[in-house]
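Researcher: Quick sanity check before group meeting.
Model: Go ahead. Protein one:
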Amino acid sequence: MQHVVRALQGVSVDVSDYQRKRDFLYGKLTELGYEIVRPQGAFYLFPRSPIEDDVAFVEALQRWNVLTVPGRGFGTPGHFRISYCVEDRVLEGAIEGFARVAKEFGL
């Protein structure tokens, strides 16, 4: 393993792809009324759930094939976690589900 690490010392990750995905998802969700602090790094968003029960909200998203995780598992109850380190088509396809659930809960 040490040989592998030595060979990777000059390798870097192009973060522009993650920034583009973040900006796309952040823009679409805020247009729909979701409250989000725009992250400066990583590849997760933690929007505020429009209802107090983040588990119930995540379950509502699952009905539209949108997979997120309740924020309470990460110390942020009342929020949910979205990973944007997926294919663009996955993010684009999730927007309709986010819109329908936002409407359902009055956003």
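Researcher: Fine. The other one?
Model: Protein two, sequence then structure:
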Amino acid sequence: MFHVKQSPLHILLINPWITDFAAYNLWARPLGLLRIGSFLRRRGIRISLIDCLDFYSTKRKYGVGKFFKTKIPKPYPLRTIPRNYGRYGITEEMLGERLSAIERPDLIGIASGMTYWYPGLLETIKVLRSFYKDTPIVLGGIYATLCYDHAVQFSGADFVIQGNGEIEFLKIVSKFSELSDLSGINAQTLGSELQTMYPPYPCYDLYPQLDSVSMLTSKGCPFRCSYCASRLIDGGFFRRDPQDVIKEIEYWTNRYAVKNIAFYDDALLVEPYAHLVPILKGLSSKGIHCNFHAPNGLHIRVIDQEIADLLFRSQFKTIRLGFETSNEKEQTGTGGKVTNQEFQSAVRNLRKAGYSPGDIGVYLLVGMPGQKATEVEESIAYTRETGARPILVEYSPVPGTPLFEKATSLSQFDIRNEPLFHNNSILPCQWERLTLADYRRLKEETSKGI
């Protein structure tokens, strides 16, 4: 039985550990948690944040780097995988110290990432329970949405939110406090305000150091790629007003001297002349300069010469293109968002704008259900010949996507019932057409110079 508090609420927000064979930071931040934190703070609720991933062994150019890794035993289902397993982020001792240093929370909100990272989430909740036995824990995020029944059964959270976690979390918060300004807010008004809640901006000020920020200028995606879960996680597709985005970038660069901003949009370049172009031109007119990064991949079809030139002038340092495969049949089957001719044109325009082949990273999917090694080899060769750098992205089966059923029928693992088998590092759909040995050979091929 949970009680409604009569004094201002204190909420602890947690970004949990990652557990995996490998993990690397590309400016990722728990944007959902940070937006919730800002929303609640302006309603008189006190917020604390512990990001278990905010700890690195090395940092490289532009602020990316390797998470600190603690080697731990592999979960039993992954016992036969011949790789070391680790927990990424702060140590257990550091987490204990940070929990001891804050006031006891009245409610805990915890995010979740990839479905196969859930052991790190469960371990984080276990530590939280050792400190706060009776404090309600609310779980949301990707794992909670895509593997809801599994999360309800195994996570140890008191509430598990599926889908739009921000809105549902705020509904739960309103049940625990009579004094917070949440009364009379329904799902529609909550959703509208969260989408346009700039300012205030995500509560990055809760981090001890801030050398980069990740941000969204849009949410969701208008495409329906067979392997992607964007529509399941974000629902529809909406975009912020370009002027709001400009003001936020101005805020981070002026107040915090941030030099690197990563866009985590799934569709940053959709209808660019109505969205990204006004943003970049507006920043230029204000004399705002920083390094931009697009780790989620850019929509290839719209990269004409004007767009390519604008990206280069605006200091887009990380260019990633979501090509997936040069096989035309597979391009159509997975969503039809690009053709080989459009890919060639985009790379040609980027090269003419000033980017070198090594600057243009091209995501190629490997380990798709039924995929042959020769298809990946041909895609690698095609990408190089076009004048760009191939980057292999291992396929992960995502529950609820059109391709998941095919993956289930072809995988040697029980991917329907055990999220650990969604791990892309084990090539969960490997079989006689594409084995781990093939993958290692292909990985070596992409590491060669262009």
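Researcher: One line on it for the slide.
Model: Residues 10-185 form a domain with the Rossmann fold fold (CATH 3.40.50.280).
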